[in-house]
């Protein structure tokens, strides 16, 4: 039997096509609301998750937390250093931890450094470069564009080179001289993954210098600071950076993740790589360097998915930055973990889905480098364990194929886009040449206040290149996309250059790299407009047909 449409209260029989049109319009409104407000279909509820750990990666983690907050995912992260993150996770006082190194089983003081029986997985979250930022003045101006070899850096941080006028520093800079100012190394006073990364590199790349100073081989999370030395200890990356940037910071040099000097507008050392080129830790240089990273791929190993960086330190590519590495989340995977609930696990799943995908698109601008495909895929393998621990957790449609990641190439995810488009180094950055000097710099080391971005990047408080200064002379690059609304990318810092390249080149000579700019309002607004356009193509003809039938019936 065919069911007839029920008459309306006014006696009219409703047109089924009009009813379908109304439903379609309601669906369109719902889609636009989701896309324009950033709201996603909610689960029963998200549970607030809390973590501590790395300050090396905290800048980008804090940004991701702010991004997902609008979608109802509440994350509290307080930093404190990688050692604290591992200890808090092991004691069960946090839901997750973040660390640059895995559990060492026993720390420097003979204390346990393990998960204390708590089930977990290492989940790669972001890549970056450990930079050497400094504060050196000449004539009242900040000196920029300093170059140092690995040997010179090792001798500075083991108190063998104690003046900025040392002949070794002059040699690294091809005869450029600097003030006879005492060098004051600033090191971490707390248990730090940044220290562990730095000392791992020292032990591998400069073993004779490091081991004579440390007294044994291997890494440490607590930098040894002999009594009576000029070294200053500071807890957290923020405090290290603030010490260098303070009015009393003249002469200081420190190791810290690249994001911190970028945010402060302070210069970083160009480090000599295995190809004989002095390079900064831009997102491109890190991406190139990490193509040589080896990952522990043994699922039975307690260090599964952790990094082996020996080949990164010796990467022969002239574009690579030697001190490049990853950071990890300690992800709770036990089905009976006392801190975990379905809602908390769902928060972790969706927080990491955003961080591994869309969130990686912000890495470069914040001084990090997006993860390559193999680590994103490995990350999702770990995220899936939350669904295995609790079948009520939704882990469907959360994988690398759904990612908008800057390292991915559509249709060929095996390629690393950033490594492919990384600009070639400038001739003046090669050993025995140059040095490349930004605007206002001289062979004598004088700087210009607010000068070039080369050697440090953005002006304080900004996200772009130097305030009104030209970048390094002869900086190389290539055009990777030349479309409307493209923005110029400084090949030195990897950051957008103000003005999008209009009104003259931002690089003294050579071509520049460009990236396609996000549409105004970001990808959410762009997605909304695209969805609206698509739905309009589908719906408008039907709506017009309904109107035509109504007109004919009148």
Summarize it.
This protein is an alpha/beta fold and 554 residues long. It has helices at residues 16-37, 58-69, 82-91, 150-156, 167-172, 193-205, 207-214, 236-245, 259-264, 283-289, 310-313, 342-356, 373-389, 417-421, 522-553, and strands at 49-53, 75-80, 96-99, 105-106, 112-113, 120-135, 137-138, 141-142, 147-148, 184-188, 232-234, 252-257, 270-272, 278-279, 294-295, 307-308, 324-332, 368-369, 486-489, 513-516. Helix 1 (16-37) runs antiparallel to helix 15, helix 6 crosses helix 7 and helix 12 (342-356) packs antiparallel against helix 13.
Key attributes of the depicted protein:
9-stranded mixed β-sheet, alpha/beta, D-Maltodextrin-Binding Protein, domain 2, 554 residues, 3-stranded mixed β-sheet, 31% helix
Account of the protein in words:
The structure is a single chain. By secondary structure, the chain is of the alpha/beta class. The protein has a domain at 120-429: D-Maltodextrin-Binding Protein, domain 2. 31% of the residues lie in helices and 15% in strands. The protein is built from 15 helices and 20 strands. The strands form 6 sheets. Strands 1, 2, 3, 6, 10, 11, 12, 17 and 18 form a 9-stranded mixed beta sheet that branches. Helix 2 (58-69) links the parallel strand 1 and strand 2 (75-80). Mean pLDDT is 78; it is low at 1-42 and 445-551.
